[in-house]
# Entry
Amino acid sequence: MTVGADRPKGIIFDFDHTLFTFDDSIDWLRVALRRLGRPTDEGTVRVLYDRIEDARGWPEVVAEQRGCQTSPATHRRAILSWFHRAGADAALADALYARVLDPAGWTPYPDVRAALEWLRERRVPVGVVSNVGWDIRPTLAHHGMGDLADAYVLSCEHGAEKPDVALFRAACDALGLDPEDGLVVGDDPVNDGAAVRIGLRVHLLPSAPRRRRTWLPLLLDLLAHDAPLAASGRG
# Structure
């Protein structure tokens, strides 16, 4: 795909692993334990953390989380069940879940602010489409970027999850954008790549350590200079 006459008139971003990443390292558990006034000795914390991580892949946990982001209630129920199955008591499970919803538990990739500000300066409308079980608007606001997105289409507010293209249609409508004039930027070839089914272009970002990712400015530089968008595709 080349830009120029075909330059996107609006950008739709994924949230998790595209704009922000959650600190689900062992510090996630330590924060929850400290908030409860509980011991955080290395041995105890490591055993419980490893069990939580292991339980993430248990068939019953995977089954409960399938489709859970269609409402805040179903998301909370599924995530708390995961923690309980891993051995967390009710208070700890609540504290872990509270951290998931805490804007301070999420970190923007280092290239995000500059990219969103670049788009805002050029009056390019920006949407965020996310499979998520809670309102992420406070997260962007907490990090000083609340005014850099024009529309949010969240699965928990629409009762549907990507790859359902209804979410991408809703984002285009909110931005006043024809799909063929938009570009989706995400990390998941299935969930984000589904946008091509309604005519949106898709640019997938490779996985990278949080502190070293620099692809968003490169993408925007390509758009600015009418160069080929080499990493884009339809899937």
Q: What stands out?
A: Residues 1-5, 226-235 have pLDDT under 50 and may be disordered. The longest helix spans residues 42-55. The beta strands are 10-13, 20-22, 106-108, 126-130, 151-154, 182-186, 201-204, 232-233. The first strand starts at residue 10 and ends at 13.
